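Action item from last meeting closed. Structure (251 res):
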């Protein structure tokens, strides 16, 4: 690219939205020095996030991750349910890990905090959300730039996932966990979906389309998760799993 082309590109980029800039830059030719310096910085940033996460969470003890929507308001029944689940989880000897933000995450951290349990927040830096909620233990709040590093921490330091109603992020975390167990990349641990009305449509699609019609999963894959309605049932599913398999924490 010559000097005039670069100047024209700079002028063009100045008039673009941030989204348009990202798309445009993905197609730009880069020289070796640009590639090397950019990629090297990313590698070191990823390494630093991994090291900090491992150091802070290595001695945290058995925990349960609670996922759900950041948009759920405090007066919503799902918020109250998540808070009650977290309180009960702590009383049964576990700490609570969340994504650290508002909504269901805040409710879960609040429930753990109310019982003086370990309340962990794995926060992600996003343009429109989110700051860490006030119920996270100050020494257990971690900030991440990269979703994939954050998900490593969820999987490595959780003895179970309790999944409340949520959006794309919640589905991402749910299917990530199920895929890792299905493919044998991690040991089996309990995945509990809370809210029969909310999840029944997805489960019907998994059974009727993925399994029965398309044969894209196996019958045994339906055992990767359980569906419950109440806080008592959610925590019982975790307790029953470990009583049955006599498994120890996974780290």
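Sequence:
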């Amino acid at each position: 690219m010559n000097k005039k082309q670069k100047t024209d590109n700079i002028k063009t980029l100045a008039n673009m939205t941030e989204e348009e800039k990202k798309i445009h830059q993905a197609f730009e030719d880069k020289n070796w020095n640009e590639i090397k310096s950019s990629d090297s910085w990313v590698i070191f940033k990823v390494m630093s996030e991994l090291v900090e996460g491992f150091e802070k969470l290595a001695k945290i003890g058995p925990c349960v991750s609670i996922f759900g929507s950041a948009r759920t308001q405090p007066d919503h029944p799902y918020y109250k349910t998540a808070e009650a689940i977290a309180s009960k989880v702590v009383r049964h000897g576990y700490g609570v890990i969340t994504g650290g933000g508002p909504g269901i995450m805040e409710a879960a951290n609040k429930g753990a905090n109310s019982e003086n349990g370990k309340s962990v927040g794995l926060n992600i830096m996003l343009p429109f959300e989110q700051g860490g909620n006030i119920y996270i233990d100050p020494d257990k709040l971690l900030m991440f730039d990269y979703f994939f590093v954050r998900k490593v921490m969820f999987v490595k330091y959780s003895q179970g996932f309790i999944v409340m109603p949520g959006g794309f992020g919640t589905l991402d975390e749910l299917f990530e966990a199920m895929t890792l167990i299905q493919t044998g990349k991690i040991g089996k641990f309990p995945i509990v979906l809370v809210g029969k009305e909310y999840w029944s449509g997805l489960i019907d699609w998994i059974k009727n389309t993925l399994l029965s019609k398309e044969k894209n999963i196996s019958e045994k894959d339906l055992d990767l998760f359980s569906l419950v309605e109440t806080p008592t049932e959610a925590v019982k599913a975790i307790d029953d799993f470990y009583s049955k398999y006599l498994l120890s924490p996974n780290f």
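Note appended to the action item: The radius of gyration is 21 Å.
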